Amino acid sequence: MDMLLFQLEKTGEKPLYDQLYSGIKEAIITKKITVGEKLPSKRKLADFLNISQTTIEIAYAQLLAEGYIISKSRVGYFVEDIDELPYIQQDTSMLLKEQPRKKTYAIDFNPGSIDIDAFPFQTWRKYAKELFDDASKELLLTGEPQGELALRTEIANYLYQSRGVVCSPEQIVIGSGTEQLLPMILRLFSEDTCFALENPGYPTVHRMFLQHKRQVCPIAVDDEGILIHELEKTTANVVYITPSHQFPTGAVLSATRRAQALNWAAQSPSRYIIEDDYDSEFRYTGKPIPALQALDRNEKVIYMSTFTKSLMPSLRVAYFVLPPKLLTTYNDVFNYYSSTVPRFDQHIVANFMRDGHFSKHLNRMRKVYRKKHEKLTTILENYSTQIKITGEQAGMHILLNVQHELSEQQLQHSANDAGIGIYPLSAYRLDENTTTQAQFLLGFGGIPVHKIESSIEKLMNCWAIQTKQPSSSRFK
Ligand SMILES: Cc1ncc(COP(=O)(O)O)c(C=O)c1O
Fold first, then answer.
1. pLDDT of residue 86
2. Which GO terms describe its molecular function (predicted)?
3. pTM of the predicted model, to two decimals?
4. Ligand 1 contact, 313 CB (< 6 A)
5. 9 in a structural domain
């Protein structure tokens, strides 16, 4: 064949081997070089194009690896039949369409945000560095399906000390987030099981149950948490609840309701409670309340929690604790699958916990969030003629009840137009919104403490809400 004539840009951004590889590939696809033709030898082509033989070698190796050419020992390289590669010529513009971008705001009261200024990077890096080493090469292999024993042991100790949860590491399953673990829990129950969910509630959970075509039953929530007498009227056998800090209203499940919930579960062997303890680490009033699982004497609670709030949402590590009776079902269904969390990440977290850094980090973060919480609630007190706050005992968001002539939707739009992200409670309702009061989730985790005052002032300004006059009566 004739020498391959290519315009190589020697000073261009694309490396020479890549230009050569693309040029030959294009010539093969468009049949300018036909099947069976011999390519010039590396030495001849290097001389002809005035480039190094190594450049030719890399380009040929890539074409060889992708099946465009074959190598015949001591004879040379030949163009391969590419009938099986028609997709290469497909129009890829469809694939390159832009994904819808998440809206960003100058001030964002997103309840999912955490403080990112106090993370102990140095310590985290030390554990990561230690692990990415020959001494830990065994971690390159697949680990245990339920998650690494080292991390499950640390989690069991932590849960006992901080939440009163009694469990062994064998009962713990680690996975990449609550949203990945819940579908596993679902599969422990027969397909006709009806699941009761708090309303309003965590939309991810609602969506997930519907996507798995499971029957769901929304149960109303008041300022003491889920209404157990409403749950009793349904055919549900499993209920998903957030007792420590109801998402999104922030209500803490009262002692009476806790007892009622456990009694409800104890009435039938097929009844269970899924307790999502997602942000229990942060409590601002009164004594810490133990987990519901800690009060359960009948092994009816599937406890679950996450490192999303306590460490970082991007880690994607959460876990659940199965009552012994469900462990057998779990083993039958799931022990064939690998854990969804990388082993290195699991060991970083385990070592971080083992050496006391997790407790230290939580103590530090409690102070950070308490400070933000105090500042936020104090500032909002100035607007108490039109603003009332609830759900402020724990977590990283509060509920803002706004008395205003504008609707919730109008208030949201005016805030968004002013560059403020604010999250209406109606978005978390599982059925038609029946309330008239405008209510918003106000996440404070991601707002730096020194910006809280100005952020609230901006929000109140755009809603034209004035600070209260000393003589004004409180809104009830
Ligand atoms: C109610 C509730 N559960 C769990 C989570 C955490 O989910 P994940 O572990 O998938 O990050 C959140 C996060 O905001 C939440 O609001």
1. 47
2. DNA binding; DNA-binding transcription factor activity; pyridoxal phosphate binding; transaminase activity
3. 0.81
4. yes
5. no
pLDDT tens-digit series, residues 239-252: 999 999 999 999 99
Domain containing residue 67: CATH number: 1.10.10.10
DSSP per-residue codes, 47-67: HHHTS-HHHHHHHHHHHHHTT
- What percent of the chain has pLDDT above 90? 78
Pocket test for ligand 1, best of 109, 204, 345 (most atoms within 8 A of CB): 204
CA of 276 to the centre of ligand 1 (A): 8
Q: Tens digit of pLDDT for each residue in 430-448?
A: 887 667 789 999 999 999 9
In a domain, 28, yes or no: yes
The Cα 393–Cα 223 span in angstroms is: 12
Ligand 1 mutation pick, 278, 315, 319, max ligand atoms within 8 A of CB: 278
Number of separate domains in the chain: 3
Per-residue pLDDT of 374-433, as tens digits, reads 999 999 999 999 999 999 899 999 999 999 999 999 999 999 999 999 999 999 998 876
**Strand segments (E) across 121-265:** 172-175, 194-199, 215-222, 225-226, 238-241
Claim to verify: residue 338 and residue 370 sit in the same structural domain:
no
Percent of the chain with pLDDT over 70: 92
Domain residues for the domain of 398 are 362-463
Nearest 5 degrees, angle CA 400-CA 406-CA 409? 70
Do 148 and 270 reside in the same domain of the chain? yes
At which residue do the structure tokens 């009163």 appear? Answer: 164
